[in-house]
C-alpha cells in the first residue's frame, strides 16, 4: 500500500518546534532594549568584535590590549567566520543574540536530522534534539557565544558521516564543517566532533569508509582553515598556551559532587539570588563560579535514557559518549587525566567543557526512550520507575524531617566542608527544593508512561512527551540565561575626556584593578550584577578601553604572549616601572585613599570615585636609550630590571646584543598605526638604539631609510633597532608570520575541494548511466 507524502505543514513542524525552543531560551536577547552581558560577553567578546571592525576586515595586530598582541592569530577572535559579518551590520547586542538563536537552532536541527537518519520517528527524534539543546550546559553557552557557534556544527558532522552521499562528496562536506568549527572561535568543537565521530566509527558498520572520510576531511578541513590555523600555530609557540605546563588542568574540573546535578537542578544553590550557592570550596578556577553554570541533564531525560538503553549499537554509541564525557570532565580526578595533558587535548582549558559529550549521549538515549514510551512500556519498567520515585519521596521526607542529619551525612559522603550547623537548614532547603523539582517532573513522566502503556495510540502523547521534557529543562535553564539592558553597551561619559588626555601620538592606559575592584558594588542578585556591570563599564574593566579606540596595557585575553606574562609577573611589585616602559601615561584608579606610585597627578575626577591620573615624565612609545647591556635571554633581562641593574629607559638590556654607550638622540615626527610605527631619528656619532615599546613578536620587521634592520628584543618584552648616526626615517611593520603560508594552504585546499566536488558529480553521472533501466 502506498502512503501519501507528508503535508508541507508536517515537514515544517519539527524545525518550527526547535526554533520555538531556541527563541524560548534566548529570544529575550532579541527584544528592544535587552542584551546578553554576563561573563565574557561584555568584557571580551564585545571588545573583540569592536576592535576587529575598527582595525579592518582582516586585522593582523591588536594594539589595544596588553601592549600589543596578534589579532588574526588569536583563533578565538573568529575573524574569518562568515556569520560574524553580522557584527559589522548590526549592533553588538543584536548580532550576538541573533547568532546565538540561529546557531542553537542549527545545532538542534542537526541532531534531529541525525536521529531521523538512525531510524527514529519524528516525536522521538524531536525529544532527543530538545534534550540536547535545552540541557543545562548547552543553555549556559549563551554566556560564551563562540562556543555555541562551533558546537552547532557538531551534529551535522555526524549527519554527514552516516549519510549515503558519494564518498568524495561526503569527504568534501565533512571538511567544510570542520573548517567552520575551526573558524568559529571555538576550535575545541572540532575536537568534540572528532570524539563523537570516533565513537560512531567504533559502533557502526562501514568503519573503513568512515575512517577514510574522517581522516581525509580532517586534513582538508585544517588546510581550508589554514589562513586562520597557520597564524595560530605561530601564536601557540609564543603564548602561554604553548610554553607552559598545562597547569590549567586543575582549573574548572567537574567536581564529583556535581554529578548529582545531572539529575537535580541546583542542589547546591544558584549563583544569583538567595539563598546562594554554598559549596564554593569545591570550585577551582579563575573565579569561584564554575565554568558550566549548570550541568543539569533533566530528570525526564535521564528517565527516558534508562528506558532507552538496549542491546544495540546505538545504545553503545550513546553510552560511550556519556562515559568519555564524564571521564574527561572530571579532569585531574579522572583516570584519563593523562590524555588531558597531551596534544591536542592539552591545547584547551577547563575539562568541565566535556560535559557536552554527556549531554549529547543522553540526548540519543532519550530519543530511544521516547520511542519506547510511545510504543508502551511494560509493567515491569513502570514498577521500576515507581520504586525510584518512592525512594526519592523517602529521601525528600528525610531531608525535611532531619535537615542537620541529612546535611551532615550528605556532605560527609561528598567530602564537602560546610559552615557551622546554623546553615544546615538552608542547605537542606536547597537540596529539598532540587529533589522536589525533580520529583514533580519525574512523576509527570511516570504518569505519561503509564498512560502510554494503556493507550499507546493516543494522539496527544507525542505532544505531551515533548512538553514534559521541554518544561523540565526550560525550568532550570532559565536561571543560566542572564539578560540586562542595552545601556550596558553605551559609551561612558568619561571617554571624551580620556581621548583628549590620550592625545596624539596616543599614550596607553594602565588600569589599577585592585583599588577599582574595592569600590565595586556587590553582585548577589541579577539587579546588583547589572549595577556592577555599569560600574565596570564606567571604569573600563578588562578590554573595554579598546571598544572606544583606547589602548591598554593591563587588559585580559584568552591568549597571552609568554614575554608579556613573564614581564608583568616579575614587575608586579613595580607598576610604575611597567607603566613607564610600556608608555602607559594615564592611570585609571580609585580616588579612595591608597598608596600610589610617585609622579602621578590627577587629571580627571569621574563618577563612582573614579580618578584618572597622569604619570609625569612618562616616556613615549618610540624613544632612544643611551646605554645597552647584553643579556643571554629574557630571564636575565627581567632579573636586571627587577634588581635595578638596568633602568629600562636610558640603560636597557638587549638579548643577544652588545653592551654599548650612545650619545643622546632626537626622535620626532612619530606616527603610530594599528600594525606599524614611523619616526624620524637624529642620532649623533656612533648612532643610537631606538626602543619600540610594543610586545615583541615574530613578524615585526624594521627598516632604516628603506633598508631592513634586525629587530632586537629589549627589556625582555619590547623591541629595538640600532640606528646609525645622522638623520633617518625608521619604520616598523607587522605581517603575521603564518599568514602567507596559511593563505597558500587555504587556496590549495579550496582547489582540492572543488576537484572533489567535480569528481563526485562525474562518478554520480557515470553510475546513473550504467544503471539498467527498470521494467
From TrEMBL:
- Tell me, what's a Pfam family for it? YfhO
Question: Keywords of this protein's UniProt record, alphabetized?
Answer: Membrane, Transmembrane, Transmembrane helix
Give TM segment ranges. Answer: 12-31, 85-106, 126-154, 166-183, 212-236, 289-309, 316-334, 354-374, 386-410, 430-451, 463-484
Question: Which InterPro entries has this protein been placed in?
Answer: Uncharacterised_YfhO
- The keyword GTP-binding appears for this protein: no
- Tell me yes or no: is Transmembrane helix among this UniProt entry's keywords: yes
Q: Which residues form a coiled coil?
A: none
Q: What is this protein called?
A: YfhO family protein
Annotated source species: Cystobacter ferrugineus
